[in-house]
Structure formats: C-alpha cells, structure tokens
Amino acid sequence: MNLKEKTFAPKFFDCLKGYNSGIFTADLMAGIVVGIVAIPLAIAFGIASGVGPAEGLITAIIAGFFIAVLGGSKVQIGGPTGAFIVIVYGIIQQHGLAGLMIATIMAGVILVLLGVFKLGSIIKFVPYPVTVGFTGGIALTIFSTQMNDFFGLGIEKVPADFVHKWICYFENFSHVNWWAFGVAAISLLIIIFSPKISKKVPGSLLAIIIATIAVYFIKGNVDNTGIKTIGDLYEMPAGFPAPRFPEFALAEGQTWLSVIQNLFPAAFTIAMLGAIESLLSAIVADGVIGDKHNSNTELIGQGVANIVVPFFGGIPATGAIARTMTNINNGGKTPVAGVVHCVILTLVLLFLGDLVKLIPMPCLAAVLVMVSYNMSGWKTFVSLSKSPKSDFSVLLTTFFLTVIFDLTIAIEIGLLLALVLFLRRTNESSVVRVFGKEIDPSDNTDVQLHEEKLVVPDGVGVYEIDGPYFFGVATKFDDVMSAVAETPKVRIIRMRKVPFIDSTGMHNLSELCHQSHKAGIQVILSGVNNHVHATLHKAGVDKIIGEEYICANINIALEKAEAYVKGVSNPKLNA
Which pTM was predicted? Predict the structure, then answer.
C-alpha cells in the first residue's frame, strides 16, 4: 500500500489545470461516443436487475457523474454493470426496492470508509481465481435470466434459482415465439458481426436501431406477433425524477438495527464487487494511458455515487471496463468525457423516452447474452485449469456457488478458501531446521565470513526458522524441538530469514523461553532483523530472553552460547 498516496484527490480538479479547447474537443467526442454506447447497456442492465429502463439510465447519469468528478482515475466511466444484475435482482426479490436502496447506501458508506482508511491497495489482492470464478458465475446467471425473452416463452414468473429456472425453460420450450426468437437471433448476429464491418458504431446500438425499426413495422402489419417491447412492460418518466427517501415499512417487532443486520451481507457484497471491478478497470486503464490512478480516491468517489444514486431510484454502480476502454479508444483525456457521457444519457432520458419504449425485449436479451459471453472468460477458465489444482478448485467452487446459491455466499467462501490455501502454502514454505555440529559460512548471510566452518559447541543446539514466524509455524517449531533427543544447555534460534512474527509466534517463543529457563536452558536469538526486534521489544519478549542474548549474527550467538555452557562470564561479549 502506498502510504504517500493522498486519501482524497479527485483527478477531475487536477485535470482542469492547463485544460484547453483541444483537450475539450477530444473529451467531447469521446463522451458522445461513450454515451451512445451506454444507452443500450444502461437500459438492459436496469431491466435485467428487476427495476426498469429509466432506473438504468438514471444510474448511469447520477453515478457516472459522481465517479467522473470525485474519482481517482482520469478516464473511468461509471454506471450499472452486468456484475450487479444477480445481486440486485436477489435483493429486490427478498427485501423489495426499499431494501435495495438501503443496501446500496450502506455499500456506499463501506466504500467511502475503505477509501478513508487507505484500503484501496489491499482490495487489489483478492485472488485471481476468486475474481474469475464469480465473474464467470455471474455471466452464466445473466445468460440464464435472458432465455425467457430471447425465445419469447411468455413465462410470467420465472423461478429465481438456477436449477428450477432451467427446468421451467425446458417445460415451456414448446411455447417458443418464433417471431421473438427471430428478432433476438438477428440482433445477436448484428452484434457479433458488425465490428468486422465497422467499429465506429457499437454493435449493440446498431442492433437496437435495426430491431426497433423492424419490429415497429412488423407489429403494424402482422397481428399477434407476441413480440414484447419496453413500453409494453415499463413506464418511462416524463422528466428527471426528484430525490426521495426510501420508504421502508418495518414489520412487527422489527427495528432499524435488525434491518441493517439483515442487509449487511448484501451491502458488503455490493461494496466488495464495486471496489474490485472499479479498481480492476482503473488498473487496466492505467496500463493503456500510462497514468496512475489514486485507488483510495476512486473508492471514495464510488462510495459517494452509491450513496446518492438510490435517492433517485437508481441501482448500484461501479467503474465499467468496456465503457472505460471505449472512452480511451475514442480519445478521452480527462474526467470531462465522463461528464459529457452523462449529459448524452440525460438528453435520451428527457427527450427520447417515446423511442426507448419501442425497443423490443428480445433485442435487449440478445445484448445481454453477448454481455454474458464477454464476461464469461471461458478462455481464462481453460488456462487456469492448467494451474495448481488448489487454485482451480477455488475457481470452480466460487463459480458453482455463484450459480447455484448466490454471489454473497460465493465471495465469502471463495475468499475463505483462498485464505486457507494461502496459509497452507505459507506454512509449507516456512521451514524449521536443526543444525549439526558445523555451520558452513559460505551459504549463510548472517555469518562473519571465515575460511573454516563454524563449530557448534557441545551442549548447544542450533535451530533455524526460514519464513514468517506466525501461528501456522508455531506448532511445527514445537514438533521439531520435541523431536530432538538430546536436551541442550543452550538453544540458539536463528531468525535471519524471519520477515515478521505475529502474536501466536511471540506467545510460542515466550512459552519456549519460560519452559527452557525452568529446565535450566538458555535461549539465544540470532540474526533478528530490526522489524522483528521492535515487535519483540514492544511485547516485552526481549526482557524474558534477555536483551544481551538477542544477537546480530550467529558468530556472536555461538560465542555467548559457549561462554554460558562453560559458566564463564566474558565482559567483552556482554559489552
């Protein structure tokens, strides 16, 4: 973690220094393109999340503005993303829209606190298999939610869980609406193949324009096509919504504390998902533009966006990698491009609502099917299958938990598994050695070099801990000690390769010293680095051992051990 990094330093205000018309022109063009790209995605994500098209647009506008103005990246574009669809839909089903609003506000507060306490860099250390696992699981879940509209099955209430959802699909597959399926299939083909013709117009936008025009004329000339449009299912607001407080009706015996406790797991998942996705997006952007984002500022900006957006009826938002890369590729230089993208979306919401109503649902399903494919990362799955089995098992566990249960459980168990595997590997890499009667100075860094090997005096046992002295190693050290048949008069513990010691390690070392002293055995530490020495001093362990028996290198430790064994007090050694 970079301690010199400012806690809150939005890039927007830094970029205004020296801002000129040339930069604004580049930002304006990039913002217009990103705004156009965001239209179908914001609408699709809003509908798939269980709210509506207007809520998706509002989220992209409000959250996009705050992320651009208060964030720590020059080019980050924020808004609703596919990653949130599953968790948002689940919260609405369980706690309603008011519950979603409260959970999103709580998530925003968590994100702000993560930034304030400078934990932005720590979030980056979430294991890659966990990220790939839940991203792939989300992709498959999004794909599953779109089959009803993609095939026009007409199922009024689709089961929430993955298994029963697909059972329901297969039971109703005889009811496929071929008009709807045709629109979806053609839309998908347009999205797939349009980039091969031209990359200037987003495939999803082109598909929506063509499909909307086609369906408008089909429905005008053909009776009972059964093709549903956004206007058939949702109302578009006449203007920009006014802010409102969440209206949450407490059940009998329920308190606000219990509501917060019930919603906290979901809020934590939203916060973690938003932090991971936004910082990964910022890192990718840094690599392209050659800049460095401020991770703590980015989290605070994301947090403020998620605190504000629920008051306008929006859903959780984060940095969007695809839209951020679109911004970069079209010449975006500063966060002003993100603000322009919000203006474009506002104009769509205020003046093009009647046209948005005509967009066919099968076309939006095709857009989300493509989004889920791009999110799936199946190539990464294949490559990680060749990694250590433990990593791949974490990936698969996170993936299946996301699909079968929910994202909250998947992230919690995935992180727990990754932590357990990390501790196991750390424990395996930490070695406890027992030296014989000689120590070779040629391969030991804390030895004052001599031509001859160092001799271990009789009655002295030399042990070495190679790696962190933490709770996983403490038991291993005890086992090695008990396995030595001969009880020495002095135990030298070489700690030259111990980077840190935790509370369990200090407790273990203190107990060893107490037991050794009772048995008339002196403990001597060798090669202790400054950090570990300071930790021992703070905990008072140096007083138990005796400061004079914490030595800089093995030469001094052996001399003191020999003097102790002989019962000789050498003033020069103690000086």
Answer: 0.76
